[in-house]
Design a protein that fits this description.
Blueprint (H helix, E strand, L loop, with lengths): L2 H18 L36 E5 L7 H4 L7 E5 L7 H13 L6 E7 L3 H11 L11 H7 L3 H15 L9 H26 L7 E7 L6 E2 L18 H12 L2 H8 L5
Parallel strand pairs: 1-2, 1-3, 3-4
Antiparallel strand pairs: 4-5
Helix pairs in contact: 4-7, 6-7, 7-9
Bound molecules: zinc ion.
Zinc ion (ZN) binds next to α4.
Length: 269
C-alpha cells in the first residue's frame, strides 16, 4: 500500500460508514462487521509473542466523544495510530507521538491525517474569545486551557479576515457569521496542521509519507475538505503547499456551500 491507496481506503471507509446510517429508519439500529485479522489481537497460535504494530495511517483527531476515529473510517485494531486531544492541535505531546510513529512505524505507515470536526468546542471557544476579547480574562490564569486555545487564535483571525474580504465588512452582522467563522476556522486549523506536519516530518526525511486533512461533519458523518475548482470537497485532501496554495484554499472555504449555508442561517437584524 502507498499513500494514495491509504487515502482511498480511508475515504472509502468513511463513505461506507456514512452510507450505513443513511438507511437507519427504526429503533433496531444497524450492524456493521469490521474484518479483523486474528493476528492483530494475538489470536494466532502459530505466532508467538505480542502482535506487531503495523498501522497504515496515523490520525490526529479531537477528543470529542462523537468522533470515534476507527469507527468513522470503518477500521479495526492495528489499522490506525490514533492521537486524540481537544481541538486536535499540534502540542508537544502530539508532535512527539507523531515523531515516534514516523521513526518507528515507517514500514507500514503511509499517511498522516489531521481530522477536525464540525462544531468543535475548542475552536468555538477560540472564536468566542476572538469576538469578545474581554472573555479572555476568564481563562487568563488557566494555562492548560490557554495551551489549547492560544494557538488557534491566528487561524480564527485569518478566517475572519477572509470572510470580510469575500463578503465585505457587513458580514460580521450576518446572524450566521459566528457559525461560519467557527466552521471556517475548524477546517483551516486542520489544513494548517497538516501543512505543518508535511513540512516538519515528511518533505525531506520520508517522501513516501503524505499528510492530509479533513473535517468530520457530525450531521452527515462524512469527511469534508474544501478545495479549489468548485469541487464538493468530500473526503480527505492534501494541504496547501505554499502561501499561494493557502490563498486558493481560503477562497475555496469561503466559496463552499457549507460556509454559505452557515452565513444564511438565521435571519437578518
Ligand atoms: Zn472538538
Amino acid at each position: 500500500m502507498d499513500s494514495h491507496a491509504a487515502l482511498r481506503r480511508l475515504n472509502g471507509g468513511n463513505s461506507d460508514f456514512a452510507a450505513l446510517l443513511d438507511h437507519l429508519n427504526d429503533e433496531s439500529g444497524v450492524q456493521q462487521i469490521i474484518p479483523v485479522d486474528p493476528r492483530d489481537l494475538g489470536l494466532d497460535s502459530n505466532v508467538a509473542g505480542t502482535p506487531k504494530q503495523r498501522p497504515f495511517a496515523a490520525v490526529l483527531g479531537c477528543s470529542d466523544a462523537r468522533v470515534p476515529i476507527e469507527l468513522i473510517f470503518n477500521e479495526g485494531p492495528n489499522d490506525l495510530f490514533v492521537i486524540r486531544v481537544a481541538g486536535n492541535g499540534l502540542g508537544m505531546e502530539v508532535l512527539g507521538s507523531l515523531k515516534y510513529a514516523v521513526d518507528h512505524l515507517g514500514g507500514t505507515l503511509k499517511l498522516i491525517v489531521v481530522l477536525g470536526h464540525s462544531g468543535c468546542g475548542a475552536l468555538t471557544t477560540a472564536v468566542d474569545m476572538f469576538l469578545s476579547p474581554s472573555n479572555y480574562v476568564t481563562i487568563a490564569a488557566m494555562h492548560s486551557v490557554r495551551n489549547i486555545l492560544d494557538r488557534s487564535l491566528i487561524v480564527v483571525q485569518a478566517s475572519a479576515n477572509k470572510l470580510i474580504s469575500a463578503f465585505g465588512p457587513g458580514v460580521t452582522r450576518y446572524p450566521g457569521y459566528r457559525k461560519a467563522l467557527i466552521e471556517a476556522s475548524i477546517v483551516t486549523n486542520a489544513a494548517l496542521s497538516a501543512y505543518s506536519i508535511q513540512q516538519e516530518f515528511i518533505t525531506h526525511a520520508v517522501p513516501e509519507l503524505q499528510a492530509v486533512y479533513g473535517v468530520y461533519i457530525l450531521e452527515t458523518r462524512e469527511v469534508w475538505a474544501p478545495r479549489s475548482g468548485g469541487i464538493k470537497g468530500t473526503g480527505l485532501a492534501s494541504p496547501p503547499r505554499d502561501l499561494a496554495g493557502f490563498s486558493a484554499f481560503a477562497d475555496a472555504v469561503v466559496q463552499s456551500e457549507r460556509i454559505a449555508s452557515c452565513l444564511k442561517s438565521g435571519t437578518f437584524d
